[in-house]
Write a structure and sequence with these properties.
eight-stranded parallel beta sheet, alpha/beta, globular, 18% strand, 428 residues
Length: 428
């Protein structure tokens, strides 16, 4: 059983420790020096110098979502034995089923060849599992952009008997287990007649993710139009009152409950971010929206005719656009903005025209006015607008190929992915 050090003693690091069990985790590293010397349960929190002195042969798992700075730091220090948790399935980050045995329920071919496609933490865990199952002809193929030294370290970690260096080396094999979101070169396996098994996205594999109560919404609004009302600073009460007067079907998101309208309420309310749901749990439950869709993290709350749970896959790797769900009864894909989840739900409901309002896609770090309401505390969050844009591009691509129109009716803002329309012109 390989042992690891987790960089990041927050929510994701703690969940990962529970998943892997404390026997595998030697220590936490945390950039917050005030935490160094303390313990998370039985596990000590250390600094990088302590890691380098005592544990430098162990792989580090970077658990924080904003991993880029830590990755650069490790490379500057000549440390290449690390994994990035964001590259792993959503479940390893604490979202969804928290049972490693169930996540590793894949059977290799003991009489034939098996290839693990990917070089992340989950790739290694699956490799270990298939080895323990007695699969002797087991190989790895790293199709991610990995430093050669990282691959060498990984070979020693797992005692790998062979790593494919290029797709040209791939011979006919029994199974290829795809453990990565990176789709490069996977077609090479399929052309050789190799069975490719999706070992990354568990949305359709885990029965508990399916919520049959959501099927009542499928094509409920076939060929109608709707408005997705977000919380950007451009939004004002006058706009939503116009929506009310014209009986428009509306979605509202996150802190839309701060909007002081005496008449308007969204027909549908959506919130899927885990930290947001935990922080504003009471406000969400108290908000009198007609129907609410929330992530299943609010597991203690029972569903009823106004309250429904969705399984949202958290995807932190944005080199390529996120997936787009065609069946929200099973999965909604996250994409750095709740608006992306809204679009998927709206498409599932059958809307053919979707108008975005208050989707500014423009945040100023340190500002108190990034939203339509004034915040007492300055907004210091990195909203990563570039990642939002990739999500919107994914939505546009899906819409364009399925006869759906998405328009941006926001006044101002920085979102230029969708065709702009003048809000007032929609009601003339």
């Amino acid at each position: 059983m390989n042992k690891y050090v987790i960089w990041g003693a927050g929510f994701r690091g703690e969940k990962l420790k529970e998943l892997l069990t404390k026997e595998r985790i030697v220590a936490f590293i945390d950039s917050d020096l005030s935490k160094v010397g303390k313990r998370k349960g039985e596990t000590e929190i250390i600094d990088f110098e302590t890691y380098h002195r005592y544990y430098r042969d162990l792989f580090i798992i970077i658990a924080v979502a904003d991993y880029e700075e830590i990755e650069s730091f490790l490379r500057e220090k000549g440390v290449y034995q690390y994994f990035i948790l964001s590259e792993c399935p959503s479940e390893l980050k604490g979202y969804g089923i928290s049972d490693l045995e169930r996540l590793l329920e894949f059977a290799g071919d003991r009489l034939g060849n098996n290839i693990i496609v990917g070089s992340n933490l989950f790739s290694c865990l699956l490799y270990e599992k298939l080895c323990n199952d007695g699969c002797e002809e087991l190989f790895c193929y790293s199709n991610e952009c990995r430093h050669p030294e990282t691959i060498r370290k990984m070979e020693r970690l797992l005692h790998i008997n062979f790593v494919f260096k290029s797709k040209d080396m791939i011979q006919k094999t029994s199974k290829a287990f795809i453990t990565t979101r990176e789709k490069r070169d996977i077609d090479a396996f399929e052309r050789k007649g190799i069975e490719c098994i999706n070992a990354y996205d568990f949305s359709y594999k885990i029965a508990e993710y399916y919520n049959p109560n959501l099927e009542r919404f499928k094509n409920k609004h076939s060929n109608e139009r709707c408005f997705i009302v977000a919380t950007g600073s451009s939004l004002d009460v006058g706009q939503v009152d116009i929506l009310y007067d014209n009986r428009e079907i509306c979605f509202g998101v996150n802190r839309i409950y701060n909007l002081e309208s005496e008449r308007w309420l969204p027909d549908y309310y959506v919130a899927v971010d885990t930290l947001f749901l935990k922080k504003y749990h009471k406000e969400i439950l108290a908000y009198p929206a007609k129907i609410k869709f929330v992530d299943e993290i609010m597991g203690d709350e029972k569903e009823n005719e106004e309250f429904f749970k969705v399984h949202c896959v958290t995807d932190d790797i944005f080199q390529e656009p996120p997936l787009f769900s065609e069946d929200v009864a099973r999965v909604v894909y996250g994409g750095a903005t709740v608006t992306y989840a809204c679009i998927q739900i709206a498409v599932y409901m059958g809307f053919k025209e979707i108008y975005l309002l208050g989707v500014d896609c423009n945040y100023c770090k340190g500002s108190n006015s990034n939203y339509f309401f004034w915040e007492q505390k300055a907004d210091v969050m990195n909203h990563k607008e570039d990642r939002m844009v990739l999500s919107y591009e994914s939505a546009r691509e899906y819409a364009d190929s399925h006869g759906i129109k998405i328009y941006n009716a926001t006044r101002g803002g920085m979102l230029e992915v969708f065709e702009r329309v003048e809000f007032d012109s929609l009601f003339q």
